[in-house]
Amino acid sequence: MSPVQHHRDRRSPLVLEVHELGRSAGSTKVIHETVPAPADLGIEVIGVPQGSDIELDLKLEAVVEGILVTGTATVQLHGQCARCLDDIEDEASFDVQELFFYPGREVDEDESVVVDETIDLDETLRDAVVLELPFTPLCSEDCLGLCPECGFNRNHDPAHSHGDKIDPRWEGLSGLLGETTN
Questions:
Q1: Above 60 in pLDDT, residue 7?
Q2: Which InterPro entries does this chain map to (predicted)?
Q3: Residue 8 placed within a domain
Q4: N or C terminus of the chain with fewer C-beta within 10 Å?
């Protein structure tokens, strides 16, 4: 089943020209570029801020079936710790690998294709980054989180406590303890 092929916006920094590779298996092109991050590159709690820099270090190689893209994408991550709700700022590198099939081949609808001698890295980048993001990001592995009683960030004072709690059903008897004399 051939997917619907539409013309790509060649102004997008994630659309790369591949006409110089031709269909000569073995020809390569190396790309070292910094491009702005597209919108919605992440999940609810952590992601890549729109417009922040993405450093692409890629190798485009012509193979018999199409263009093989391999390399890394280095991004800035911004999010919230799942335990203490502090902001997280980090840098991470993600492996990128995708085969873009030449037109005229039978491909599944989820496979990438070369359109008008260009490849669009948007979906490839999303797959590489979003699928590897943690569902519960932490500011540190030993984050203590928030106090369940008052919401205090226990990382600021690990000894934080509210004293011994007395079961409310027995609280009335606690006064008797101090009044007993033998």
A1: no
A2: YceD
A3: no
A4: C
